[in-house]
Write a structure and sequence with these properties.
single chain, four-stranded antiparallel β-sheet, 9 helices
Amino acid sequence: MSKSSPRRPFGGKSTGTVTVIEARVHRSWARNARMAFVLTAVIAGILAAVVASSYMHPILALFVGIIVGVPLGGIVWVLVRIWPVIRLLWWWTPEIILAVVLLTGWVQLASHTPTLVTLLVVALVVGVPAGVPVIRRRVVAWGWCLVVRHRLRVCFAQFIIANQSGSLPLILWAIPTPVGERVWVYLRPGLSVKDLESRLDKIAVTCHASTVLIERASDGNSAYVRFDIKRREVLNANVASPLVDVIDPDTPTVEQAPPVVPTALDLPDVQAPTITLPKQGSTADRKPATTSSANGSKPAATSSTAEDDVSDWI
């Protein structure tokens, strides 16, 4: 008999758990951690034993190798095992730093200043960026950079296959541009620029942008790529020209007739040139052409006459 699970108010079953790191990623990194522990412990233990054998008995050197190799393998195991958590903290590093700075500033301000001064400082810190358009646009642009990093991570986790172990590309940093944001990403094995070019329309939808472009950020490393996320057009805006104020309004205007553009060509109007060919002489006046040999002497003429009997040549 199956147990009935409580349902949510808007439908769907409630599992009661929130998945932060997928089970496949847990299993993959657990296996990698075990292999890293064994390799580090064996290699470090053998090297330590070889070095110690020159100063003590080989059996004691073996124990020294075990004492050195096992702790080093344990340290490597911990680092590899918690790498998914470290990567998750890396994704949220800007937000964590910003929250710590704001909370620390609020606590210090509230504990060292009166309430009226605290409220005045908070009003200035919040009101000035919100009231000044230049500062407000800059703050919004950097806010979109934080959002885009997480939206790209959603793209890689949802519909872009990274590799069999489930490790996602490393999303590095993002900066605002006049048309949107620019994000640098380090790809994992299993992805390439051509694979991502076929999914740029889906990435644009996920990032709430109009278009997304991708290109290599390094000539020597194809895994280091750059995403250019476009949200707005800046080339079609109307720009006021200062040349209008330089023109004198009292300058008289000169009306010019529009030029006549020819649309057809009348052939009788074209005069064909007359070409005069030189007169050619008769055949008797022509001289036989002679050729010179390699040593400069002229060979005898080989012209045949009517008296030659050609029956001997047949």
